[in-house]
Amino acid sequence: MSQSNNWPLWEVFVRSSRGLSHVHAGSLHAPDEQMAVRNARDLYTRRNEGVSLWVVKSSDIISSDPDEKDSFFESPQGKDYRHATYYKASEGVKHL
Amino acid sequence: MKHEELDAALDSFGDALASATRVTPGNALRPEDIAVDGVAPSDEVAQYALTLGDDALILAQRLAHWISRAPELEEDVALGNIALDILGHARSFLTYAGLAWDKSEDDLAYWREEEEFTSLWIVEQPNGHFGVTIIRQLIVSIYQHLLYQKLATSQDETLAAIAAKAVKEVDYHRDHAIQWTIRLGQGTEESAQKMRHALEILWPYVDEMFRDEPVHQNLESIAVLPSSLKDAWQEEISAVLAEAGLEIPATGQAMAFGRRGEHSEHLGYLLAEMQVLARKHPGASW
């Protein structure tokens, strides 16, 4: 580790088996996208964890602002009617 | 455990339990399976397996030296993974060879002398800088990829099974070396210069890799004739070097006869380090 690491950061997503979604597994440094996929293979699928990999440059990900937590994520609370359990099956409906 | 029970246990440990939520090691041939189920090879087949095992063992030992020393953490893990893959190949080949002589993989790895090792000179050459290691990987992994592809069709079932597993791993080692060769060859003037230097110091050990010895010639349809790999190897490595903007250097060839137990000055030091613990504490285990 003689030089400071000036390779860009990449986020790694692993699909563990067919039919499932890719799930964020972690991040790594790599000089370009091809090496990023290879490094991801070496770092995150050593124990048979995956059948597919995605890498995305961390700087390309737009995330929600933690300071806007209330306006973004508090709003659905108390809105029971957005859940199916809020509604009662009407009489006469047999197959709901 | 009896063999049947062991098989059943291994089955349940492997793909049978593979699911979305459980990570399993999968089913693949392991040295332990060869030790338990393997049929002892003839002395000639064992000698051939020994050459393949020695190449892998010495290369794995060399590559493992990069652990904690690579230019970046990610590359440290990559080289460590490759070293472990190759060590796995060595363990399988040496375990199989040892069945002929009632010796374990450890007997063969730790208790032979330098002149009993049959490895090629290219694998014992020092790591040098990162570019030297990458060029050595390029030369050897393209070679092993071609070799194991052919060996997977060997009439010797165990050799074929070891090769069939190894070829997938070596395919990745080859890709890793190619990616780095292209990047460093096309990189800065300094990186290109270092790659040219690496080619010059390693190219003298190329001819030995393709020399047919009695150990190959006596095993028709079991062993792969090294000379039969030369054209495909030359074509493949030339294409990579051309893409990297590098050229095959005009160097002479070393008088290298590793298959006969004659080695360069580097193997003795490597073995001393590799074998010291086993020899100082015979029979020790974790």
Describe this structure in words.
The complex is a heterodimer of chains A (about 100) and B (about 290). Helices cover about 20% and strands about 20% of the residues of chain A. Chain A has two helices and three strands; from the N terminus they run E-E-H-E-H. Chain A has helices at about 35-45, 70-75; strands spanning about 10-15, 25-30, 50-55. A three-stranded antiparallel sheet of chain A has the order 2-1-3, with helices on one face. The longest helix of chain A is centred in the middle third of the chain and has 12 residues, at about 35-45. In chain A, about 15% of the residues are buried. Chain B has helices spanning about 5-15, 30-35, 45-65, 75-100, 105-110, 120-125, 130-150, 155-185, 190-200, 205-210, 215, 230-245, 265-280. The chains are: A alpha+beta (about 100), B mainly alpha (about 290). The interface of A and B includes residues 30, 42, 43 and 46 of A.
Provide a brief overview of the structure.
By secondary structure, chain A is α+β, with helices and mostly antiparallel strands.
Oligomer status:
heterodimer
Span between termini of chain A: 63 Å
Could you spell the SSE succession of chain B in H and E letters?
A: HHHHHHHHHHHHH
Structural class given helices, strands, pairing of chain A? alpha+beta
Structural class of chain B: mainly alpha
Low-pLDDT runs of chain A: none
Helix content of chain A: 10-25%
Broad shape of chain A: elongated
Percentage of residues in strands of chain B: under 5%
Order of H and E elements of chain A: EEHEH
Q: What percent strand of chain A?
A: 15-25%
The helix count of chain B comes to 13
- Walk across the major sheet of chain A and give the strand order: 2-1-3
- The radius of gyration computed from the alpha-carbon positions of chain A, rounded to a whole number of angstroms, is 21 Å
Could you give the distance between the termini of chain B?
21 Å
Low-confidence stretches of chain B: 9-20
Helix count, DSSP H or I runs of 4 or more residues of chain A: 2
Please tell me how large the radius of gyration of chain B is: 19 Å
Pfam family, one (chain A): PaaB
Organism (chain A): Glutamicibacter ectropisis
Protein name (chain A): 1,2-phenylacetyl-CoA epoxidase subunit B
